[in-house]
Each structure stands twice: as structure tokens, then as C-alpha cells.
Amino acid sequence: MRLMERVNKRKNKEKAGLPEMQRRMLVAFAVMLILIVALTMRVGWIQVVANDKYMTRAADGRIKDEVVAPDRGRILDRNGREFAVSSTKYDIWIRIELYPSEANKEDGWLEGQIDLAVRAVARGAGKGEDELRALLENGTTRVRVVRNTDKEHMLAISAAAKELTEGGSVAVLETVENDSRSYPLGTLASNVIGTVNGDGTGQSGVELSYNNYLSGVTGRSIVNTDGNGNKVSGGELANYESTDGLSVILTIDETIQYYLEQALAESMAATESDRMIAIVMDPKTGDILAMGTTDNYDPNNPQTPLTEEGQAALAALEEDAKSEYLSNMWKNPLVSDVYDPGSVFKLVTVSSAIEVGSAKPEEDHYYCSGGIDVYDRFIRCWDYPKSHGNQTIAEAVKNSCNPAMIQIVQKMGFENYYRYLELFGITESTGVKLPGEAEPLIQTNPGPVGLATMSFGQGLSITPLQMITAVSAIANDGKLMEPRIAVGLADSDGNVVEKFPTKIKRQVLSEATAAEVRSIMEYVATSDGSQSRSGHIDGYNIGIKTGTTQKLVGDTYESGQVIGSMVLVAPIEDPKFVVLVIADNPKTTKYGIAAAGPATNKIATETLRYLNVKPTYTEEELQSIASREKAVPDVTGKLYSEAAIILDNAGFKANAQNGGAEEDYQVIDQYPKPGSKAIVGGTVFLYRS
To answer: What's the whole-number mean pLDDT along residues 232-242?
Structure first.
């Protein structure tokens, strides 16, 4: 009985305890469910609502991808002298776009980073904080606050950032290495060399046309960083080294370029021309030895014209017009501009007719009565109403007789004439590796009058480069070369890694015809008359042809405005170079011989001596030279400032080479050499190490 009571009592207790356990289990389950729901909501809130904030916090394990900029290759003259060089500069950026979270504003982290960046840059670069903050006010999330600073300022900014963060760094502050371009020779050959834009990419000249070689290959560095942007230990993920750009070795010779630009400047002042341009070419290779214009600029400061008038004109323009103005200032007119070549083109007409066989130098004569009737027009000779009478081909070229040229081309016929225009490269661009080469403007169906005017260089427009290339074919035994501006490429150690070969485009004339035309050019230089005044260089046989033509402005020939030009081949028996000089609208003279002759003669004279072409003097020439020559003083080992005074006292001009005379330097070499004879008033080049 008692046993049954105890069993029943236990069962009653168990029945009473069951609901209590269930309640406890339910409570525990409810708590767990609440925690799971809360955790799920929290995760959802983090992933959706607060995503930006926690993405920023993930900067504790951020991957940083940096660009590693290569060094841009140098631009060198044919002897290794530097026209363009590069140095490492630094851009400082505030990069807010790496941390785009609006949620960051809740705790002020992003604002604090921006404030630290502004203060660090202000201290290190000496900029005003207000100025820097103003750059960030327009909502820009990536701002370059310092451009092209040197290493000293970059390190000063970095030190300021470490000081402000007590040894750390500022997450939004980024330093980027880049290539800064400088031009040690200033304005020399600037329209050939060109410039780069703010990103270091070529935008004109050789800098543009050889940009792919010069620019190199950009590298990348990918690393893990902490929240302050510092690389964590073992955090390098990938490193792709940059490849420096190759140096371009030009065909340009710095010394000949200097002679050319000096001669143009002097003639510009004497003739009061709007502009003067010139080119020197090696006819055997097509190498451009020098090329320049008086409308040059300083590539170290390419946005600013050299003259006060130019600066004022630029400042007065609207933004779009300013861009056009600068583009015109940077362009190379010897490649980009076309002109009516005038009487220099008669060399093409005569050589074509001789090659075809329609003109025979030893037999044919051409009569000039002062003009000639062509279809419904009377075309005058330049000396009208005077006449040249009966003349040979050589005499017609010397007299620059228009009626004679018309008779020559009429006999040859348009089909033959046009075929030789094609062979001489007159109907197509030259293919030179320079930007902006203009296409020629040639009549393809000219009619009798058009054909007549083309014979003496009017009614067709070509580039100066085309003109000198055609004359160079005559100087090169009839072989037309493709103009070359670069010899090859070199690595950063100066080793030549690629050579650009010379290219013969075609044989235009026979050697006999080319020699015949060169003898005609020599006859022009040596015969009596106005053509010979600039056609003489002591000790050398040369050939020349001058030209004067009305200036074409738009579609109209401007009354009273002319283009004066002269081409010269030297020495005529074995040509080393051809010179072409063009005077645009000279005011003090209207004839090519007076406008372009002195500059052409001076360039040729200096170049012959520089190339060590041995002269052969007549007795009369020797006496004349002796009265004008003097021994060059020895100034090697002296400071440039002292050497310049010594040379000036001796009657010579000093010219600083390899970087100019902004800083005084010791002269290690000179040209002409000490003790050698030179014409008083000439230039002595002084070289530094």
C-alpha cells in the first residue's frame, strides 16, 4: 500500500515538472531565435545600409594598386647632344574616391583624413590650406594638389604626414612618380623637337611622332596595406617593372642648326620679313641636318609666346582660339605649310625636259620678247618690259626667264611633265616621320595657262620639304631619297638598339641629266649678273637658283607681297648638302636673291667649314681671306664668362653649348680649335662636360 502511494506521488511530481521544462526550453529557443534574427538583421544592415562604412573599414586589408612610371627617352642630335631630357618629378593627390562612404561622415574618419592631407601638403609644399580646401569644394573626389614637384618637396610632404599621424601615414594622400621633360637647348630646333602635354605624352614634333618609342612601358605595383595605407609585412602581391623609353637619335646636327637659326635671325631683321624658314639636307641620305623658323618658341614654357606682342595677342583670345594659336606656334612650317615655290621650281621643269629629251642644252634656244601669249593671256617675264632675247637653257635658268620655261613645258607636253612631277615627289607628301605633313596642291587638268604658270613655280603649292627633296635628287645623281629625321634608337645606357635605314624612293633622272643640271646651277652662281651676288663662297664651287613669287593668301595672290627664296648645292662637284631658305613677305627687297641669298650663303659657308670640306682658293681669294681672318684664341680651361670676354676682344662671338650659359662653367673644348684661322665676326662654340 505504501509502495503504491510512493509510486503515485512520484508520477504526480513528474507530471507537474513537465510543463516547467517545456517552458524553459521554449524560453531558450525564443532567445536563440531572437539572437539569430538580430544577427541576420545586423548582417543585412552591414551589407546594405552601412556597406560603404565597412568597406572603408576593410582598408585594414586594402589592396593598393600603384602605377610605376617609366623614364621618357631622350632626344639627341646626331652627335649625342641632348635636345630633350627627363627627370623624376612627383604629383601629390588627395584621393577621396578610394573611400566613398557617406557613412564615414558619422564618425568623422574621412573628414579627418582629408584634414590631415590638407595640413601635410600645406606644410611640405608651402601652400595655403584655404587654397587646397577650395580645390575639394566642388565635389571632386580625386584632386591633384601638387604637380611636378621635386623630391625635396615630396619628402617634406611625407615627413609632415608622418608627424601629423605620429609615425603613420594619411590614407587619402597619394604620391605618384612621373616623368618631367626639359629642353636644355631652349628654343633651338623647337618646332622640330616639339613638346609634351601635362601627362608627359608627346603633342607636337618629334615628341609626338616618336612618342611610342620615347614613352616606354608603364609598370604596376600591387600590395596589401593597412588602414593608413602602409604596406603590410609580406603584402606584395605583384610587381610589374616599368620599361624606360628609348632615346631618339636625330639626323639634326646641333651646330648646323645653330648656324641656320642665327642666319635666319639676322636676315629677318635685315629684310623685315614676316617670317623666315630654312632647311639643310644631305642629298645622298635624305638626312635633315637642320630645319628651323624664326617663329619658334621655348618648349620649356610652351604656353607662352617669346615676344610681348605674341603674349598680348594670345591673352586677348577666347579659349578655343588660344588652342589654335598655340597649335600654329608649335607646328613646323617646313612640313605643315605649302607655298608657291616660284623660280626655284624651274630646276624641276628643266631637268624633266632634258631627261625626256624634249630639251637639248647644247642645241636649243628660247626667245624672250618680255612676255608670251598663252591661249587668251599675255604672260609677262619678271623683267617686263625688258626682254632676254635669244638664250640657251643655261642662260634661261640664269635669267630666270618665264617665257623660256613656258616654251620648254609646252614642247614637253602635260603628260610627260606630270609624270616627272610624280617622279620628283611633287604630287604626294614625302613620308617624313614628322607630324602634320601637308598634302601638295597640284592641278591635275591645268589647261594651257595653268601648265604655263606651273612651269615657273606658280599655280601649284608644295611644302618646303618637298622642294628641297626634289633639288636633292638632282644633287644625288638623280636618286630621290625619302627625307629622314631620325637615325635610330638608343637605350638608357646610350647603346644603339635600332637603326633606321636610308631609303631610295626611285631613280628620277639619269646621272648625266643630273650632272647637266648641276652644271647649269654652277653657271648661275658664277656668271655675271644679279644672280651671282650671293652665289660665291671662297674656296668652293657651288650651284644656286633663286626664286621670287607673289604670295598666295587664301585663294588670292596679294599685290605687293612676295615669297623670296634661294636653294644652294655645295660643293657642286660632290654635294655634301643642299640649303633652302625662304623669306615670307620681305619689306626691304622684293627679290629672292636679296631676301634669302645672304642667309643661304652664310649657312652654307659655316656648314662647309664645320664639315671640314677642304677648300681650294684662288690667289685673289687668298688675299681677300687674309685681310678678314684672324687666329682663334685658346679659351679651353677657362670659365665661360671669361672666355666670352676674351673672344669678344678678339672679334669673335661666343656660343655656349651643351645646356647654355645660364650657369658659369668651365670650357673643356671649343670649335674652331685654338690657333686656327676664322673670319672675324664669326662664332666660336664653347663646350662643357
So the answer is: 61
